[in-house]
């Protein structure tokens, strides 16, 4: 602050301008490189000599100048960078200028010309004008000669660090020119394929070295304590008007030096620069009140930024496995991409002191945050492999960052543990609010429920906040220095036990608590409902998580020790809760899960404290991440044992996985004769207050989300009048489409357009870390309104099956079909109340072709279930893997014959996986809809009509069931959407295929028997009070309408020619209105049923 009254100055370190220039330059070039490789990889690596695969790395010119949007993003960033670049040149001149040397003035001219030529080759690309692009590029390189050597010469000899850095970078720059020129000649003159890729490597190295050379100026500015001060005059004489204020305003931009620090040695060998001062304009100053408010809010803003970055870290970390296992499920086995899990072992690099030192610095942590941000930016890539590589790279940076944060001194572990727990809870709340997807995951975008751009913008603000904090103590808001709290951590002898405990805790949180409905899925048993419902009771999980985090916060306010959380009894409490969760179902099992939630969330500070006490950052945190990766793989093997070598040893061994998780947590507790020290650190009152407020807000948000999405009306069938039931079966490939995106909304759209009343989805058990712990039913249930049975939970070791119904589910039973060799086959047998008639439905996912015995036993079991309910109406919706009419032991004959069912169309021989069977219903339509890019299997649809209330099907012979019809011969209620005909282009890539149209079937005549009574006073072609003989009028078509619990008919075609005018009007009215309105308008007409 200036000493003059009424004057205030805003001071900015000149080194910050250099830092901004460096980040903008790197962001411009590398954003263009990443986006170009993701969107136009084969195009930008192609040149006049060869293309991919001979050329596989793009040149700078091809990356920045040929394609939208990378070219435009690059040019925008370069434009933003022009200001800091010119400022760097002018500040360097003012710092170096002297009355005894003309070198600074010459460097000012060269630097300006160099900057202008850079703008020339950047904005005039080789595709715009190749010659001018090359001329300006050569001019830029030529200008680098005097710029680099002149800058080195102008650097004071006392600043040895800066001088050496410039010398080394300049030497590398000019040495890299030699191979670059050589490979350019190989490409341009000799036209050798692949030479341009090698040329590109050296071209990119020149860009990197050039930016690094300019970044060394920050060291010069810091050594000279170069600052820019903007001063504002607030003097206000009584006779001053606005015009005079404008005339008297001025800005003081001062370049000052004071006690420069060189090589960390304080005042030793101070660098001498001439002091310069420049006068420019004046800006209004903030009032002291605003400064005071800002100062009070700053700790809260810092806390919120740390909390949001923790949310980003958990989001990036949990996105790795679903991004990775996209490839595994397509290969149905180990695809090799699983090795990307090893990216989390990056904390091994911290064994090098230089890496640990840099990562611990503010600039290093900022850089790691920026690199982690690439995990969010990966959503922009449409290539699943590119997305995986970017996410793996982001997780490598993330793992180093959290290792540095979590290994903080003891006074910071409590803060880091609180932020880590709150961030994890925030990810779970965000999934609850966003239909089981974290809104910033790279596997979602705007079309699938993502809010990626908003999340990235907030992350950038939080990273900026981290970088601009005045001191590291801002991150550790301790009210006072407690000698116990700030004592150094004593290294523990058995560090590997701490690593095991940390890895087990991370996996336990991810596998059980990442989504609030996972514990509910563990306890779900079906209808009638005897336990929690996934989309309605998930907030209870969040409340338990908040309670678990609140316990250490409360204990910290009572003293400096959290020792109760390390007592063996607390471990026993967690173990018993796990046993209850695993052994019981419904509310009792869920209650055990809630207690386990409290336990896991409460020991986060304990486990992080033990890991920080290990004394070895690199070994502890890399081993912990290795344990997490091993848990990921083994937990999948409990289900996917049939597809991986050695998987049979893990078959259905979830109990062993849970046991291993708890055994690895045990060493963190203070058992009898244990030499472990107590967990001793405290939290400030302000931090506890912010954390408690955060817990309350997140819990309230969860409850508000539940109330907002609580169903307000019962699901309604699409065609209640005609008593039509439209069913479907679809294998949805774990809710990941062919592009690696979440497919919930795409599935919903097709289900909505097809107006399905009852349908089954297969491969739906996603409550595992490898599938993102997602609930595939959320969007459909909340947007379209269905009753849902989510089928056997993740503790039943199946791939999952789900039943959706517009009709009330009276009862449902989950079956695990016999599977001696292959994967476990789930089945849901439900009884639905369809228009007052109980209808049985079974949704089945049978085994694969490689296990014929499994398929035979499973088919026999399903046939038994269907046969036992005969002659009740029954619909089979299943994944069978067999050819139609294949004899035993193949499933088809077993299901049809032994189950006493009818194939929906036995003439359809082009089937393999999905089948629809039925009995006790009239089938009226059958359609096969293409999958688009949602999955690898089509959607099959069967449409049925129930017999009249209180009646059964009267004729199930084959001729009666196969009365094929044109669509126009059927009532409109039976028609499928016209938009999905292939001739009309389909909708979103879906269309009717195989037959290119739905198949329609007439109802047997016995079902159409009716009597139309007219008043005897009017003439009629048949005797009064005599039923119309239906065979005489075969061209009449009708559909049923349920009215006042009686079944009536609406005539849909013209009346017979011999009818009287009144009778013609009656027929016309019956065709266009409900029977009730016609009867009310024409009291002489009565429609009754036999």
UniProtKB/TrEMBL annotation:
PGAP2IP second transmembrane domain sequence ranges: 493-671
UniProt entry tagged with the keyword Signal: no
Cited Pfam families: 6TM_1st_PGAP2IP, 6TM_2nd_PGAP2IP, Exo_endo_phos_PGAP2IP, Frag1
Annotated ranges, domain PGAP2IP first transmembrane: 311-464
Presence of the UniProt keyword Transmembrane in the record: yes
Ranges for domain CWH43-like N-terminal: 16-223
All copies of domain PGAP2IP C-terminal nuclease-like, residue ranges: 723-958
Keywords: Membrane, Transmembrane, Transmembrane helix
TM region positions: 12-41, 106-124, 136-157, 169-185, 590-609, 621-644
Domain of life, per lineage: Eukaryota
PANTHER family to which the protein is assigned, alphabetical: CALCOFLUOR WHITE HYPERSENSITIVE PROTEIN PRECURSOR, PGAP2-INTERACTING PROTEIN
Entry protein name: Calcofluor white hypersensitive protein
Protein's organism: Somion occarium
């Amino acid at each position: 602050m200036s000493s003059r009254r009424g004057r205030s100055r805003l001071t900015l370190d000149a080194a910050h301008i250099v830092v901004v220039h460096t980040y903008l330059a790197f962001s411009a070039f590398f954003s263009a490189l990443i986006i170009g490789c993701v969107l136009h990889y084969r195009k930008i690596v192609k040149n006049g000599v060869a293309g991919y695969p001979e050329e596989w790395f793009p040149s700078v010119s091809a990356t920045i100048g040929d394609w939208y949007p990378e070219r435009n993003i690059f040019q925008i960033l370069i434009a933003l960078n022009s200001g800091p670049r010119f400022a760097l040149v002018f500040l360097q001149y003012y710092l170096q200028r002297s009355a005894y040397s003309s070198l600074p003035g010459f460097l000012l001219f060269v630097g300006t010309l160099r900057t202008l030529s850079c703008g020339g080759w950047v904005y005039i690309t080789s595709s715009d004008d190749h010659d001018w692009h090359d001329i300006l590029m050569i001019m830029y390189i030529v200008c680098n000669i005097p710029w680099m050597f002149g800058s080195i010469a102008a650097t004071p000899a006392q600043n040895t660090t800066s001088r050496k850095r410039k010398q080394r970078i300049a030497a590398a720059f000019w040495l890299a020119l030699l191979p670059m020129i050589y490979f350019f000649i190989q490409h341009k003159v000799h036209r050798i394929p692949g030479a341009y890729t090698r040329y590109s490597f050296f071209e990119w190295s020149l860009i990197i070295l050039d930016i690094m050379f300019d970044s060394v100026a920050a060291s010069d500015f810091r050594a000279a304590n170069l600052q820019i001060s903007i001063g504002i005059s607030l003097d206000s004489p009584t006779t001053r008007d606005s015009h005079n204020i404008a005339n008297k305003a001025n800005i003081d931009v001062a370049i000052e030096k004071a006690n420069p620090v060189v090589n960390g040695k304080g005042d030793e060998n101070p660098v001498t620069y001439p002091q310069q001062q420049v006068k420019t304009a004046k800006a209004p100053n903030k009032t002291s009140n605003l400064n005071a408010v800002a100062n009070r809010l700053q700790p809260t803003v810092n806390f919120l930024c740390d909390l949001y970055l923790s949310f980003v870290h958990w989001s990036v970390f949990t996105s790795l496995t679903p991004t990775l296992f996209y490839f595994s499920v397509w290969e149905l086995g180990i695809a090799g991409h699983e090795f990307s899990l090893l990216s989390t072992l990056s904390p091994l690099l911290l064994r090098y002191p230089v890496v640990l030192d840099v990562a611990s610095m503010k600039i290093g942590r900022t850089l790691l945050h920026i690199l982690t941000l690439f995990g969010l930016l990966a959503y922009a890539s449409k290539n699943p492999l590119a997305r995986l590589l970017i996410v793996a790279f982001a997780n490598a940076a993330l793992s180093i960052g959290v290792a540095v944060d979590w290994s903080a001194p003891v006074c910071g572990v409590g803060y880091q543990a609180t932020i880590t727990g709150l961030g994890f809870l925030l990810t779970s709340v965000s999934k609850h609010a966003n239909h089981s997807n974290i809104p910033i995951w790279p596997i979602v975008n705007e079309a699938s429920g993502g809010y990626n751009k908003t999340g990235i913008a907030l992350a950038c603000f939080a990273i900026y906040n981290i970088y601009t904090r005045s001191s590291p103590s801002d991150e550790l808001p301790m009210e006072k220095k407690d000698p116990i709290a700030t004592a150094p951590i004593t290294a523990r002898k058995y560090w590997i036990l701490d690593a095991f405990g940390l890895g087990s805790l991370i996996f336990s949180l991810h596998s059980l608590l990442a989504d609030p409905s996972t514990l509910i899925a563990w306890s779900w048993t079906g209808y009638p409902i005897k336990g929690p419902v996934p989309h309605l009771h998930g907030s209870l999980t969040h409340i338990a998580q908040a309670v678990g985090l609140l316990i250490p916060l409360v204990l910290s306010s009572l003293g400096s020790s959290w020792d109760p959380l390390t007592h063996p009894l607390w471990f026993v409490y967690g173990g018993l809760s796990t046993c209850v969760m695993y052994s019981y179902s419904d509310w009792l099992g869920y209650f055990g899960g809630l207690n386990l939630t409290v336990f896991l969330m409460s020991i986060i500070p304990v486990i992080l404290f033990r890991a920080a006490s290990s004394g070895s950052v690199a070994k502890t945190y890399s081993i912990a991440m290795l344990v997490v990766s091993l848990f990921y793989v083994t937990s999948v093997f409990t289900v996917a044992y049939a597809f991986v070598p050695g998987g049979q040893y893990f078959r259905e061994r979830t109990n062993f996985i849970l046991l291993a998780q708890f055994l690895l947590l045990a060493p963190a507790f203070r058992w009898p004769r244990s030499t472990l020290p107590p967990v001793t650190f405290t939290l400030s009152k302000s931090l506890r207050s912010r954390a408690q407020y955060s817990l309350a807000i997140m819990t309230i948000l969860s409850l508000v989300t539940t109330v907002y999405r609580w169903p307000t009306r019962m699901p309604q069938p699409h065609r209640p009048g005609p008593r039509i039931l439209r069913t479907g079966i679809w294998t949805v490939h774990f809710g990941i489409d062919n592009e690696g995106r979440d497919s919930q909304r795409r599935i919903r759209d097709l289900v909505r357009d097809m107006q399905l009343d009852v349908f089954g989805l297969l491969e739906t058990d996603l409550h595992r870390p490898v599938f993102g712990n997602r609930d595939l039913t959320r969007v459909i249930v909340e947007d379209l309104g269905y009753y849902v049975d989510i089928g056997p939970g993740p503790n039943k070791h199946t791939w999952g099956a789900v039943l959706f119904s517009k009709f009330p589910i009276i009862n449902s039973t989950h079956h695990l079909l016999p599977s001696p060799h292959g994967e476990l086959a789930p089945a849901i047998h439900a009884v639905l109340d369809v228009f007052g008639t109980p209808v049985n439905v079974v949704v089945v996912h049978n085994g694969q072709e490689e296990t014929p015995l499994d398929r035979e036993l499973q088919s026999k079991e399903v046939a038994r279930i269907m046969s036992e309910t005969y002659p009740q109406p029954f619909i089979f919706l299943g994944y069978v893997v067999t050819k139609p009419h294949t004899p035993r032991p193949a499933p088809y004959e077993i299901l049809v014959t032994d189950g006493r069912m009818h194939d929906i169309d036995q003439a359809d021989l082009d089937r393999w996986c999905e089948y629809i069977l039925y009995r006790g219903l009239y089938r009226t339509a059958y359609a096969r809809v293409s999958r688009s890019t949602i999955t690898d299997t089509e959607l099959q649809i069967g449409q049925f009509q129930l017999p009249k209330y209180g009646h059964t099907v009267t004729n199930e012979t084959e001729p009666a069931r196969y009365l094929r019809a044109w669509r126009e011969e059927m009532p409109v209620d039976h028609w499928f959407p016209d938009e999905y005909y292939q001739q009309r282009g389909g909708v979103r890539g879906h269309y009717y295929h195989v037959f290119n149209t739905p198949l329609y079937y007439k109802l047997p005549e016995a079902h159409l028997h009716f009597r139309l009574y007219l008043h005897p006073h009017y003439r009629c072609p048949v005797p009064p009070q005599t039923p119309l003989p239906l065979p005489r009028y075969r061209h009449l078509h009708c559909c049923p309408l349920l009215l006042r619990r009686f079944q009536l008919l609406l005539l849909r075609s013209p009346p017979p020619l011999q009818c009287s005018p009144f009778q013609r009007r009656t027929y016309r009215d019956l065709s266009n209105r409900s029977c009730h309105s016609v009867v009310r308008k024409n009291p002489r007409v009565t429609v009754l049923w036999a």
